[in-house]
Specification:
Strand order of the largest sheet: 5-4-3-12-13-14
Number of helices: 5
Number of domains: 1
Structural class: alpha/beta
Bound molecules: zinc ion
Oligomer: single chain
Shape: globular
Order of helices and strands: EEEHEHEHEEHEHEEEEEE
CATH topology: Purple Acid Phosphatase, chain A, domain 2
Strand content: 15-25%
Length: 296
């Protein structure tokens, strides 16, 4: 990882917070404290993952009901920071015993999530479609597609859907094993075409991991990485699913895994992220609570 910040001349002070070193610019000039560019050119994105909201008792380290309070705290921060959009990286809800109960979990969490930011992107996680169909989930959050791309302030964003079995069937209503995550041929073809037509710095959002070949990885992740690397424009992939902090660099692309909001009890056991992207594609990740911070 290169530190493109080391050559900047403005005054900095360093703060040690949650074991992470933050570099902040002095308040004397108009440069952005994170990326050193004109702040009005920077794109700000709020990120959260693995909220697993469900009105059911705690199981192991997953405190499903506490997600509402944790989200409320994150929302206060996001409302101040005013991101251009917010992306939720999957497992927004946890499984219910019935479709009706699951719909009510989705309604409850989205009622609290939606007011945070007008533009929202929902990445499908395996738990989102454990009880519901993809259509039911997407209509509950008013999103048309499970995979698509969009541009914001000169940056290209790709949303992926890896909730497909190896035989190409979409996940729905407990018809799958969570370890059998795949991106089917039609989506790969779409992805390759989408990236071919694009010349902007690109950021990818996914739920299941594209940087590991264990149970948390997409089974055909090598093929997906090949397509991402071939484009030459992909700067980073943000993913959830394994609930832990992780960062890998493969083929010149950063694969950043974000921490789950649902893990642990109490407001200190939460995680959310503010990402700042400069026009040249440099990225700063400001992690809160259990989430680590990075810049590259
Ligand atoms: Zn999860």
């Amino acid at each position: 990882m290169t530190d493109s910040f080391s050559t900047r001349s403005f005054h900095r002070r360093t703060i040690l917070k949650q074991g992470t070193l933050f570099l902040l610019a002095g308040a004397m000039n108009s440069v952005d404290p994170i990326l050193g560019a004109d702040p009005s050119d920077n794109l700000k994105v709020g990120l959260v993952t693995d909220m697993h909201y469900a009105d059911k008792p705690t199981r192991g380290s997953r405190h499903y009901r506490e997600t509402l309070d944790k989200l409320e705290a994150a929302a206060i921060h996001f409302e101040k920071a005013k991101p251009h959009f917010i992306a939720e990286l999957g497992d927004f809800i946890d499984a219910a015993d019935s479709v009706d109960a699951e719909q009510s979990y989705l309604k409850t969490i989205n009622k609290q999530f939606a007011p945070i930011c007008k533009e929202r992107h929902y990445i499908l996680g395996n738990h989102c479609v454990d009880t519901l169909t993809k259509e039911e989930f997407l209509s509950g959050v008013e999103q048309k597609k499970s995979y698509y791309s969009f541009d914001q302030k000169g940056i290209h964003f790709v949303v992926l859907d890896s909730c497909f079995r190896s035989d190409g069937k979409p996940y729905q209503r407990k018809n799958f094993q969570w370890t059998d995550a795949n991106i089917p041929p039609a989506e790969l073809e779409w992805l390759a075409g989408d990236l071919e037509d694009n010349d902007k710095p690109t950021i990818v959002f996914a739920h299941q991991r594209l940087d590991v070949s264990n149970n948390h990885g997409v089974r055909n992740c090598r093929k997906v990485r090949e397509i991402l690397e071939k484009s030459g424009n992909v700067k980073a992939v943000f993913q959830g699913h394994s609930h832990q902090n992780d960062l890998k660099e493969i083929g010149g692309i950063h694969y950043c895994t974000l921490v789950a909001m649902v893990e642990g009890s109490g407001e200190e056991n939460s995680a959310y992220t503010m990402m700042t992207v400069a026009k040249n594609g440099s990225i700063a990740i400001e992690g809160f609570l259990k989430q680590k911070s990075y810049q590259w």
